Amino acid sequence: MKTLQTMKTSFVLFISLILGGFVSIRANNLTITNTSVAGTNITFQISWENSWNTNLAPNNWDAAWVFVKYQDCNTKLWNHASLSTTVGDHSVASPLMVETVSDGKGVFLRRSAVGSGNISNASITLKMTIPAGTYNYKVIGLEMVSVPQGTFNLGGVASETTRYNSFVIDATAQSSGLSAATLGGSSVAIPNTYPMGYNALYCMKYEITQLQYVDFLNTLTYPQQATRTEYDPISAAYTHAFNVQSGSSYNNRNGIIILTPGSNAAIPAVYANDLTSTIENNADDGQNIACNFLSPMDVQAYLDWAALRPMSDMEYEKICRGPVSAVANEYAWGSTSIYQVYNTLGGLINDNTTTEQFSPVSNGRCVYGVGSSAVAYGPLRVGIFAESTTGRESSGATYYGIMEMSGNVWEQIVNTRDAAGAAYTNTNGDGTLSVNGNANQSSWPTTTGFGLRGGDFYNGSSYLRLADRSQSQWNNPNTRNFNIGGRGVR
Length: 490
What we know:
Layout: E1 2-5, E2 12-15, E3 30-38, E4 41-53, E5 62-72, E6 78-80, E7 82-83, E8 91-92, E9 96-100, E10 107-111, E11 115-129, E12 134-147, E13 152-154, E14 167-169, H1 171-176, H2 180-183, E15 201-204, H3 210-217, H4 222-228, E16 256-260, E17 270-273, H5 296-305, E18 311-312, H6 313-321, E19 339-341, E20 348-349, E21 357-358, E22 365-367, H7 392-395, E23 411-414, H8 419-422, E24 450-453
Parallel strand pairs: 2-12, 18-23, 19-22
Antiparallel strand pairs: 1-2, 3-4, 4-11, 5-6, 5-10, 5-12, 7-11, 8-11, 9-10, 12-15, 13-14, 16-17, 20-21, 23-24
């Protein structure tokens, strides 16, 4: 354990060698390294690939949502750090700028001017507001994409039977609310507090990964871990945290394991990635594969912990379609082109690694349609089809550059088909969970109000279609299925 005593305060930095020395928290292509603390300032370097800021359509940028967790060295409990809401309190190296948020639960780091390319070891210093003490720290980054404020076309075309009515969502719709008859699609009346997609937001670029879910589990208490996994944290070392069928060493490409069991219903377990069942946290242990087996309550807990929020049913369509007109039977990439991909198909390269890829390049590449729940099948690496030479159709991106909104694992949304869904507001998570590990936001659904969009690796192509709402009411809050994951917005 390495320590650094500061001169001006009682803060002590402990860089914990968690999970065999792993000290940086990564999303797909995003790394945070060289963390240090002086007083209430936390400094680190951040890198990620293929960053952009464009003043041409779609007129948006990508960003890193960065937040800080700190662990009291006496109680061993992890907490969410508040960050200053004053831009001038933070120091950010070029070409980045810092975008603060009013609740101080994190910051967005993004390009300050039009440009594109990799962000390489940019030095960042953020000012925290936490009580004096002796702490461990984790700086966590999630790749996000901005979705600008603006009108968009809801619904598909007349030939699509499970869609919303075709309707323009604009400022008037958002401020006035919408009747059930206007929306159609078995919807209830929607008040103006429901996030319809007109207002600007950020969306996670990728689905929650297995590494990200491990990072989440490793900051929870024993009772919280017990709620957020399938198997009790006291289970033997190398027990898989989620469903195991027929004695398989892993199930549907989910490799999250208990590395060190918890004890006495008090000391939490330590979790790791071990998809290949050899040495945990190796480069081929599926860290960047989309996390499946996530129930609605699992996803909500993760998003509350990360100070994000669930995506609404209507936001799903805005994020995919953008301001352009609907195309009959289109997928998230805006066309009807589709090319089936799955993990046992020839063409998968560097299986289970952070560079897992699929060849050949083809328009509409999508993970779908295996039609079997056998343990060998599962989701692929998030962002797998995005390469330096691919466009929107061949990478499977939405209008704004968000990946896998059709296929891989189902997206979880808040529906418009029952009262609990309609009561949802755009309240963000606060970084903390209830004692038993549930999200604690009062406007978020708890028993009904849930839904699924976008299809998955198991089902056929009809579920992948952008306008398809056949599963948009899926009220199974604690059910974990092999083909369901999720992502969040803010």
